[in-house]
Amino acid sequence: MSTTKYESMKIPILKKSEYPTWKVKMLMYLEAMDPDYLDRIRDGPYIPTRIIERTETVPEHYVGSASVKKNRRALLIQEYEQFDARPDESLTDLYDRFLTLLNNLSLVGKEYVSEDSNTKFLRALPVE
After folding, report:
1. Largest pairwise CA distance in the chain
2. Angstrom distance (rounded) from CA 45 to CA 41
């Protein structure tokens, strides 16, 4: 199985008496995850400085028609039902792919009960 650099990293646990140490460890953890992460927290969200004039486009250009949405929903549901681990896929990659699938399903209005999705994920795990 392939491993990523993030699999060996653990989120520092906060203990009330060790806050200064935890703070340093947490800053190092966030810096390792994404060097720009702390800058984004300090600077806030990106705010555009220029207004772009709206241009007329085909109404379904980005949103999609009802039939496109219906097909996308059907494909996502089918992908959920057939979800399984890929060969040589790490546990982290499998979990990320599953969460992305659940988020995409939620966007098209299909949500599963936590117990059902947890069971689905556990059944998708490889035997090893």
Report:
1. 60
2. 8
